[in-house]
Amino acid sequence: MIHMNRNLLKQVIIKTIPVMTGYVVLGFGFGILSENAGYGLGWVLAMSVFIYAGSMQYLMVSLLSSGASVISTALATLMVNARHLFYGISMIGRYQGAGAKKPYLIFALTDETYSLVCHGDTPKGADPHLYYFLVSFFNQIYWIVGSVLGAAVGSAVTFNSAGIDFAMTALFVTVFVEQWLTAESHIPAVGGVCVSVVCLLIFGGDLFLIPSMVLILAGLSLGKPLLGREKSGASGKNPAVDTRQAAVSMPPEPSSADNAQKEGGIRHD
Amino acid sequence: MTDTRAISLIATAAVVTALLRFLPFLILGGKRQPPAFITYLGRVLPYAIIGMLVVYCLRGVTPLVWPHGLPELLAVAVTAGLHLWRRNTLLSIAGGTVCYMVLIQFIFK
Q1: ipTM, 2 dp
Q2: Residue B68 Cα, gap to closest chain A Cα (Å)
Q3: What is the domain range of residue A78?
Q4: pTM, whole model, 2 decimals?
């Protein structure tokens, strides 16, 4: 048991190293920024523990120093973080039955954590919910450590770190390529990029996320007859389902319910 | 700004963020077995969302103004290329990031 847990911990650390790199760097940057604006160690710690949303915390520094109101802070948070609604929708099935871990799993569902858990790959023999929990928890620890370090020793750093924040972009590009290689249909990925680019051109960088989300949701909903069938047949990581699909050629509806049951079943193993 | 005021702003951001994260689970997650439609979205949404996140990260790029998004384009190509070549996440991220830093610090100054 102890051996298995140690193995799981090792897996979690390996899996989260990219996020660790990005979070320590971005957290560090946030710590410096906040410290310089007059909100030092204690404030940084509180924000990283309770808000735990990268871009929002960067924005928080300017809201604090410009004397924003509660209302404008609430609206800014809604705009910047609305994309989190999306993550929840696609994690409902996987986080079901997580019990006491569930509130924290939901609270800690950042962009980066989402990119690691969204496909439900878990180490062999591990309890998926424990695995998701450890990934989420480690990521938040990286973020807290990075930001606290930035507030504490940031002013001592002198090397030119311009552009290091590209680490987060690179993480998402990597996840995108990885998904591309394992996906049976490229329609959702291509559609997501195209819709977002068009919305970015029309609405601009500050406003394009919400229209993009609405259009992506609408598009995927309308495309269910096509994508629902294609998807269930080809889940490359699940050959058992694959062959059965091919043999019985189930209609899309029951097959997705069947998949959900399968996911639920892994939990009890 | 007084400390109380600052605390109330931080609390506001924390509560609204948590609300956004919890809302889908509160509205749609009640049933023992999620509806087939939600299961379907859970499978296809990640592809679209990660695509959207890549665009989100690159939203500040200015294709019509110098350097025309070239550093970003090159660094994304290096990241993706490295990943197609070795499929080593850490290598892809480190390579792409170092490439971007060199590009904006020394070449596209």
Answers
A1: 0.89
A2: 15
A3: 1-182
A4: 0.77
